[in-house]
Amino acid sequence: MLVISERINGLFTAVGKAIDARDSKFIQEHALKQIECGAHALDLNVGPGRDDGPAAMDWLVRTVQDVTDVPLCIDTPGIKTMTAGVKACRNKIIINSTTAEMKRMQALFPLAREHDADVICLTMDERGIPNDAESRAEMAMLMMTTAMEYDIMPDRLLLDPLVMPIKAAQDQAVKVIKAMLLFQTLNDPAPRTVVGLSNVSNGAKERSLINRTYLGMLIGAGLSAGIVDVQDADLMEVIKTGELLRAEKLYCDDFLRA
Ligand code: THG
Question: Ligand 1: which residue has its CA nearest to atom 14?
């Protein structure tokens, strides 16, 4: 499984402050810590509600790639902020994200093509997030076919069924699993999938337990990638054990240490 760290996100107070103060040392140490904890890629999000989005993302990308060459997952709903991040990026790029909205796909697929980026496709559109698996799969299909019109093959996409907080939408957790299974029937070879895992436990108690239980369910359903809290050691053990049970890693008695 591709492990993407969720933690370089302005939503976290300390990170938001470091971005405001352009504190390179804090961000660079934080980035290296994520990789030490097992991140293969870093999600970079400058946080909501700032008026310096493009400049902040440009700085964040440059600051992180000064200390690592892992792939960067540029996470913003703003087209200008996305463009600034992608243009600054020399590492492998994951655009996070487009939706099924035509105006977003028309802006982001050409950007992805020009900069050889993978693209996360959120199954939502101007009407919001559908509440059943079939509509999510329909939107995933629309994004796959539209990407192909821009010469982006399905293997460059990561389909995201959009995990919802269990506290607010309890029926959605299983529907997201169902959507993931449907996505994998839309193409041969099966398209890759990704989720923002911690969404599920937003506002809940026992966050780590909810996150890792749901992760086990998602891994069982074939999840390819996760934006996760890599500093949660128990969660990382579920990932390693999942890789073992899917026979992606060779079994040995000491597999957690290996
Ligand atoms: N899909 C894709 N990208 C995403 C998401 C997704 N990016 C953002 C998000 N969802 C995944 N990342 C996070 C990061 C933080 C939290 C949840 C998901 C989180 N933060 C604490 C909170 O809101 O309670 C902040 C706590 C703090 O301030 O310390 O839970 O679904 N493609």
Answer: 6
Answer yes or no: do 243 and 141 share one domain. Answer: yes
The structure's pTM equals 0.98
Pair 144, 241 in one domain: yes
Quote the domain boundaries for residue 49: 1-91
229 contacts 6 by C-beta, under 8 angstroms: yes
- 78/123 same-domain check: no
Closest alpha carbon to 60 in 36, 26, 94: 26
Total of domains in the chain:
2
Q: Which of 7, 11, 19, 210 to mutate to test the pocket of ligand 1 (most atoms within 8 A of CB)?
A: 11
- 75 CB under 6 A from ligand 1? yes
pLDDT per residue as tens digits for the range 28-87: 999 999 999 999 999 999 999 899 999 999 999 999 999 999 999 999 999 999 999 999
Q: Judge if the beta carbon of residue 12 lies within 6 A of ligand 1.
A: yes
Q: Are residues 81 and 200 in the same domain?
A: no
